[in-house]
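Standup, Tuesday
Yesterday: got the pipeline producing structure tokens again.
Today: sanity-check two examples.
Blockers: none.

Example 1:
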Amino acid sequence: MKKENIITILVISLFSLAIIVGFMNIKKAKKEEKKLAAIPFESLMKTKKLITLPDSIAVLNIFSTISYAEESPYFGIVRSGAIYWLEKLKSIEDDKNVKAVILRLNSPGGTIGATQEIYNAVLRLREKGKIVVVSMGDIAASGAYYIACAADYIVANPGTLTGSIGVIISGMDLTELFKKIGISYNVIKSGKNKDILSPYRKMSPEEQKLLEEMVMDAYNQFFEAVAKGRRIPKDRLKELADGRVFSGARALENKLVDELGDYETALKVATEMAKITKPNIIELDKETNPIYGIFSMFGKRDKLPYIGKLEELKAPVLYITPF
């Protein structure tokens, strides 16, 4: 048999095996999801203990939009999402070998609930005596900046886009378009505000007021987190917290960050603040098993609750992003 034919047969066989295993994983995942429904969230957050060395510095990359949706952008090898990041932070919370944590932020922000959970997780790390330093990348705005305010120290590149202290909620008004193409809706609802922000009708003044109150409530929570974390007088902060985006250099001038520099700068700061001579670096989100990535394409996931993608949510969602 020719060498090319043998290779073709092997490739087809491996691909077929992957499909079979994938379907088996899908069935297994569905069974696991039913079991997960009855398990408390706190239990799900418990992870296997890391093998750490004394004087360790843990590094976590938050490199995507902040939400509860679990993402696997590269065939499952690289994962992201609030649940995943919370799991990683929880795994080192009580580890006495981990003296400091570096959060590498490269995110435009996201939903406010997910942002606040990560913000609180960072505060818990500090309560446990760990130093937390933020290293900002291309962009660390809005929700990402909210999280940064929980840290002990913030390092930004001079050209980093950050700030954007604000909250937004939006919806489309398609009523005129629907009239032109002859589309109408029949709606049965339990209350007058149940279909608020629906695109098939215009918003009433009462609904606009309700949404404005909700947005300002969330904004005030964001504002207080910045004022507390950055120790900026509120009168001064009001001038900055209008949703605008700052470069890293301008953010330093306005005391929104502590220093200009890159990841190496943040590592040096964390080492000095934690009083470590020779740090051992732990990359929390480094996936070491490529087989996991291959089979996750066919439905295999870690034992974590599926929250749902943003586009699946039926209720209005508050976003804290610069866009």
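Example 2:
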Amino acid sequence: MILVPITYRGGIYRHNEIIDLIEDLGGYIVQKHLIAQEVVLQCFVPKDDVELIRTMGKPLTGDVIDSPLVGTEIAVVIPSLEIHHLPHPACDIAEYVRRLGAKSNMIGMARGVGKRIAGINDEERDVINEHDIAVYVLGNFETCIEYKMQIIRRGIEVPIVLCGAPNKEALQKIINPPVEGYVGNVGRFMHRTKESDELAKLDEIVAEITRVLEKKREEIAKDPLSVSPARLMDVIREQVPAIHEVTSPTPLTVQMSGLRVKLPYDTYASVLRKIEIEDGITIGDVADILPSRMRDYIIIRIHLFSETNMVI
């Protein structure tokens, strides 16, 4: 069964019927938002049943939208949090991908500015590597991007999409070794992206992120995960009551190859390892439980089939 990411938007009236349908079909609700009289469900559903969900939602004023960014966590990386190096596109990119289902975190570097001091420290590197993809939002000058990008990308293992004011061809020419994605003509400007051409550029960024993530999904499909991250999310929700008391957004953040669990590592790591998924198989049997460099959270990295010889 192939699960695909979608977003369901509809009225709050009888929306529980849609939730029950998705769960009965073997799907998973990743996030649920109630906004006034509207409900937004970001979920994974069987590919063959998308039309059924769309048909069932029509009488309830519901609509089903393909959302390739659901179930991903994206790092938006900027040189610093100072006003001179925090261009509005970074904020808008982080918000735009969030609207399309992704969980985004903005990471401002401590020493990402200036050719003399530019650098990336161990904590920044580790935090970026905890995400599915990193979007680097740099400035206006080719020489600055060419020099600093080689430094602030050191140790980054996740795919990178680079945004900057030079056009795409210029970015491809100056970056060596190349990164996975490029979006040009996204420079620093002191206003929000609200004009039609600026919104089109945000759509271009999302398209490039989606292209890179689809390539990563294809690689995962060749050697699948031992358990679906969305299924693991449901198991933890059912067996760890403390997760329902977490007030942070998305207490369980689904990633492409794991989860971020927003509970203290020292207290709950051993609890998570012992949780049974099915037939005596525990989370510790199919995944690594690791301390996150982001606060005191937990990172779960699911093993591949080639490592465990099981898919549950």
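Quick observation on example 2: The mean pLDDT is 91. The first strand starts at residue 3 and ends at 11.
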